[in-house]
Design a protein that fits this description.
alpha/beta, Rossmann fold, Helicase, Ruva Protein, domain 3, 3 domains, five-stranded parallel β-sheet, two-stranded antiparallel ribbon, elongated
Length: 368
């Protein structure tokens, strides 16, 4: 029966509920066909989706039509909006990359040098038509707060690529990465596909954050997914269960982090290059606090230049209020606390400018 016949049938018998639904369903179905015709997707996938629409058209007028239409429309929405061919253009400038790393991280000279070597290989491969998939996958290993995550973000910024962070802490279900078949209620794509749709390109930097902190009962299965993601022979055909069609991840630049490597499978270790992130000394933290964290915290708190000053003698107390901390998270929290307290004093009218000194620092730092 043609769409025109469906419509005329609906006009003749407006009291027939199933006929009304049939007429209403014709327009959305035609809309899906138009979307498919405009989409730039692989030819065999296009053929599969066209066949799905043909099968859906047969169900028009039946009780199961709308359930199947909703499932199909959701599937089309995901498949047609994935970046099958779209990718960003890399910035192939090593000196710019060096400045970007220096601007975001103090010290860590050996780590930066290794990253620049890594980027130099990528740049040379691209300029000479080489295979960038063979570049080693960096994994930053170190204690909490030593800059692992921000270093990965700095790589993306240096290359001018989009950035996706996927946290693995407590992850207990591989479906989180792979998605679930669309035939299950409330099914959807996994985190990889969701991230790609969000950034709109097929070549972002994807950070697999804290891959050693997955749940014990899912360790083996998630490590298996990681092998597929990180292996250049396999990630060209990454299969998300919801999309149910291979997506090429070979242009993705994967970076990983871990607190330690003891819980990472051997097969995954074979595909990554661990880089040890050293702990910061107190003197390095003072420089980081003054140069990076304080200006950022003042800006976030709405403070202007000159409204807050911190005496040099206060910084050792801000850096180490209780004891040793490998990273800078405690330092960052303390600086933010000082800025919030300063903002309150200024807004309340008690002070126009605040100077933190050894005599009054206890008023600004948390007490235990």
């Amino acid at each position: 029966m043609s769409p025109g016949a469906d419509a005329s049938l609906g006009e003749k018998n407006s009291n027939d509920f199933s006929t009304q639904r049939l007429a209403a369903g014709a327009t959305p179905l035609a809309n899906l066909r138009r979307q498919l015709e405009m989409a730039k997707i692989p030819a065999d996938l296009h053929q599969r989706l066209a066949e799905m629409l043909d099968q859906l058209a047969i169900l028009q007028g039946t009780e199961s039509f709308f359930l199947n239409y909703q499932r199909t429309a959701k599937y089309f929405d995901w498949v047609l909006n994935l970046p099958w061919n779209r990718q960003s253009k890399d910035i192939l400038d090593l000196e710019r990359a060096r400045k970007s790393l220096d601007a975001s991280h103090y010290g860590l000279d050996k780590i930066k040098e290794r990253i620049l070597e890594y980027l130099a290989v990528l740049i040379l491969q691209k300029q000479r038509g080489g295979d960038t998939r063979r570049a080693p996958i960096l994994c930053f290993v170190g204690l909490v707060g030593t800059g692992k995550t921000t270093m990965a973000a700095a790589i993306a910024q240096a290359l001018g690529r989009k950035f996706i962070r996927i946290p693995f802490g407590g992850l207990g279900d591989p479906f989180y990465l792979r998605g679930q078949s669309r035939f299950y209620p409330y099914a959807g794509p996994g985190r990889i596909i969701r991230g790609l749709r969000q950034v709109g390109v097929r070549n972002p930097v994807i950070l697999l954050d804290e891959i050693d902190r997955v749940a014990d009962d899912a360790l083996n299965t998630i490590m298996g997914v990681l092998v597929e993601l990180l292996d250049p022979e396999q990630n060209q055909q990454f299969m998300d269960h919801f999309i149910d069609y291979p997506f090429d991840l070979s242009q993705v630049l994967f970076v990983a982090t871990a607190n330690n490597t003891s819980r990472i499978a051997t097969a995954v270790m074979d595909r990554i290059e661990p880089l040890s992130m050293p702990s910061y000394s107190d003197q390095e933290k003072i420089v980081i606090g003054k140069k990076y964290l304080l200006p950022e915290a003042m800006k976030e708190s709405g403070l202007r230049l000159g409204e807050l000053t911190i005496a040099d003698a206060c910084w050792p107390l801000i850096v180490r209020p209780l004891g040793f901390d490998a990273g800078v998270r405690t330092l960052k929290r303390n600086i933010e606390r000082i800025c919030r307290r300063t903002a309150m004093l200024i807004v309340s009218g008690r002070d126009k400018k605040v100077a933190v000194t050894p005599e009054n620092i206890k008023k600004f730092l948390p007490s235990w």
